Amino acid sequence: MDTGKQLTGTLAVAVFTAALGSLQYGYSLGVINAPQKVIEKHYGRSLGVWSEKAAILSENGTEKSKLLEPGQHPDVIMYWSLSVAVFSIGGMLSSFLVGFIGDLKGRVKGMLMVNVLAVAAGLLMGLCKMWKPHIMVISGRALMGFYCGLTSGLVPMYIGEIAPKAYRGALGTLHQLAIVIGILISQVIGLDFILGNDEMWPILLGLSGAPAILQSFLLPLCPESPRYLYILLGKEQEARKSLLRFKGAYDPTPDLEEMRKEKQEADKEPRISILSLICSSVYRQQLFVALMMHLSQQLSGINAIFYYSTAIFSRAGIGQPVYATIGVGVINTVFTLVSVALVDKAGRRTLTLVGLGGMCCCAVAMTVGLRFQNEFSWMSYVSMSAIFLFVSFFEIGPGPIPWFIVAELFSQGPRPAAIALAGCCNWTSNFIIGMTFPYIQAWLDSYVFILFAVLLLGFTVFIYLRVPETKGKTFDEIAAVFHSRRGKPKDSSELQQLKTSSDA
């Protein structure tokens, strides 16, 4: 039985292959950041609102700065914001389809099917100079977002189902780790002397489809999830074969017995639709907590830093802002590893509270730094340190935890609907930040992070008051916490009647 706990080559290949999808998601999040100025020039030229000739002539004129910067033209600002934010629209739309695609053909074939979207998106962006760059890039980003919305659900689902019990926590956080590594890779190869320049930037964007090609070659080598085969399809023999491929030579009977019990539970409990979950009074508090966890992740201001960090560092007076942005990427990766080590020891609630509280203080420090950098030159170091610490606190708790706490708050029946709703909430708030941040920054100027500090304070108070610790608790124990707060005893018949229940 001992070999059942070992990490086999097949398991390693399967986890690595699945995580390529998360890597691609991270790469697509970060890639748009470094070449912003270069892309704005191409947009300006394509839209006919800017040319090098006009820029050179205007150097002698009085309105020098206005004509020099294509990024200051309203049309370019709009198309640029859309290029950043349309990625999230794609993710918002497709996050609802994760359960459907995962169940339709299985986890492995599901991931293989959606790779077509990623390759098409990569080609659209890679060949964008052949037509109107702004239209091609926006279409490619929308398609890539649609792919990433699916992969950000399918990858944790597959890894969670194939991971042995002893390693489930560590392997589960690999989704977030692959995302931050993807962000870091995009920042490094986005440097102007590598691919982030006038000639090569379409290749930089087009490369976001490359992991999908590698993944398509590796996926046929990966066994299907035994849980999917047994619990959803009832194919016990195929599940046995899959277990033996994942775990080597061992007796799979205890694992199959555990799945048989899980299948019985799943068959007893109704598969709850998204609509009935929203209307149900039984799960209202859990759903509210799950959605607030995802909102706290996105509305913390972290994506403002990922999307616009180069611009923020320029404002803070850093000579080489792209290197500072890469520093953020390195810290991101290191602190995600810290979270992997701590999450099962310190607990979810504690780490989230420490993370959000720390980010709130950093947002205040960042504002002070940006506000006084003209009076005191050392203030630029304050804002820079604040950004680095902000990212560290994010990756300790608010970054990785919302992705897997939703699964802990809900049992088998409502879980797919809850994950779809939480995913959509995450992508929607991501879109709102991506679209509005340039305008909010123009309006509030150096006080922009005060807005995030206020939101972070609110989220910290909410989590302190309303979110229970889920570490080491069964679903029944977590549900009991929520039911006792509603002042009602836990009524299992009410749970069973959810199929017909309306708003109580």
UniProtKB/TrEMBL annotation:
GO cellular component: brush border; plasma membrane
Protein localization: Membrane
UniProt KW keywords: Membrane, Sugar transport, Transmembrane, Transmembrane helix, Transport
Taxonomic superkingdom: Eukaryota
GO molecular function: D-glucose transmembrane transporter activity
Major facilitator superfamily (MFS) profile domain segment(s): 14-471
Transmembrane regions: 7-27, 77-100, 112-132, 138-159, 171-195, 201-222, 287-310, 322-343, 350-372, 378-396, 417-440, 446-465
Topology in membrane: Multi-pass membrane protein
PROSITE patterns: MFS (PS50850), SUGAR_TRANSPORT_1 (PS00216), SUGAR_TRANSPORT_2 (PS00217)
GO biological process, one term: D-glucose import
UniProt similarity note: Belongs to the major facilitator superfamily. Sugar transporter (TC 2.A.1.1) family.
The name this protein goes by in its record: Solute carrier family 2, facilitated glucose transporter member 2 isoform X1
Organism this protein belongs to: Parambassis ranga
Classification lineage: Eukaryota, Metazoa, Chordata, Craniata, Vertebrata
